[in-house]
Amino acid sequence: MQIEFYKYQGTGNDFVMIDNRQEIFPKEDTKLIARLCDRRFGIGADGLILLENDPETDFKMVYYNSDGNQSSMCGNGGRCLVAFAKKLNVIDDNTTFIATDGLHHAAVADNGIVSLQMIDVADVKITPEYVFMNTGSPHHIQLVDDLEHYNVKENGASIRYGELYGKQGSNINFVKKIDETTFSLRTYERGVEDETLACGTGATAVAIAMNVLGETKANSIDLNVEGGKLVVSFDKKDGHFTNVFLKGPAEFVFKGTIEI
Ligand SMILES: N[C@@H](CCC[C@H](N)C(=O)O)C(=O)O
């Protein structure tokens, strides 16, 4: 069978998008999803996302990591899916959709920048070495010296598979402060099992962590990721983070058909 796919990327975090409103895609076929995401034997991507019908919202997001397993929320994938929904004329410029972590509101600006509301965050674990929180996906955040030369893959894998996070694992973010409102980060992604060029839930977690640690007082934070720039903004009251928005580019790359 041939299926049509669309390739998108948001700050270099790239995704295979499939319109599954007719329920044609074999969603339980983990090996197939891993093959479609494979950069040598398939299309190549950090993840695969199905756009499906939802009775109460504009559409449903079903996200798989490049290892073929369905996973928790993907912030950049969510932003790219909004751009894809607009391309398919499923939505106009504003939308509400459902994902694994609940409802998301999003807006597409005239310049193609997609702003996505993320879940509220109240539980933040702070230790002298690291911060941990769930922003739709689990994130470990730690400040490091010399981020440019840091071995993200080796150190990320050792924390992800170490005793802290057990079988479930976590995404691992390494951070450097640039100035009062700007931070650089590099992320080891669970399910990709490598560094990716960007991670949206990771950027969100880093912005909140830097505020909680007192590294910034700002509530709109610029994040330099390997594949570009993201902005995270929020409201904070009594340690609760609400109106959390992840903003950045979400771009169509190419479309094609593939035999599955
Ligand atoms: N790239 C994503 C995160 C995707 C989920 C993650 N790999 C996991 O399984 O926890 C993002 O942009 O948030």
What's the topology here?
Elements: E1 2-10, E2 13-19, H1 30-37, E3 47-52, E4 60-65, H2 75-87, E5 94-99, E6 102-108, E7 113-117, E8 124-126, E9 131-134, E10 138-143, H3 152-160, E11 171-179, E12 182-189, E13 194-196, H4 200-212, E14 220-225, E15 228-237, E16 240-249, E17 251-259
Parallel strand pairs: 2-3, 10-11, 12-14
Antiparallel strand pairs: 1-2, 1-17, 3-4, 5-6, 6-7, 7-16, 8-9, 9-10, 11-12, 12-13, 14-15, 15-16
β-sheet strand percentage: 35-45%
Instruction: Using the alpha-carbon principal axes, give the shape.
Output: globular
What separation lies between the terminal Cα atoms?
6 Å
Largest sheet data: 12 strands, mixed
Helical stretch tally: 4
Number of strands: 17
- Secondary structural class: alpha+beta
The H/E string reads: EEHEEHEEEEEEHEEEHEEEE
Mean pLDDT: 98
The hetero molecules present are:
the ligand N[C@@H](CCC[C@H](N)C(=O)O)C(=O)O
Specify Rg, calculated over alpha carbons.
17 Å
Helix proportion of residues, in percent?
10-25%
Give unreliable regions as ranges: none
Written description of the protein model:
The protein has 260 residues and is of the alpha+beta class. Helices cover 17% and strands 44% of the residues. The protein is built from four helices and 17 strands. The strands form two sheets. Strands 5, 6, 7, 8, 9, 10, 11, 12, 13, 14, 15 and 16 form a twelve-stranded mixed beta sheet that branches. The chain has a five-stranded mixed beta sheet with strand order 4-3-2-1-17, sandwiched between helices. Strand 10 (138-143), helix 3 and strand 11 form a beta-alpha-beta unit. The longest helix is centred in the first third of the chain and has 13 residues, at 75-87. The chain is globular and about 55 Å long. The mean pLDDT is 98. The ligand N[C@@H](CCC[C@H](N)C(=O)O)C(=O)O is lined by residues 13, 65, 71-72, 74-77, 137, 171, 189-192, 199-201.
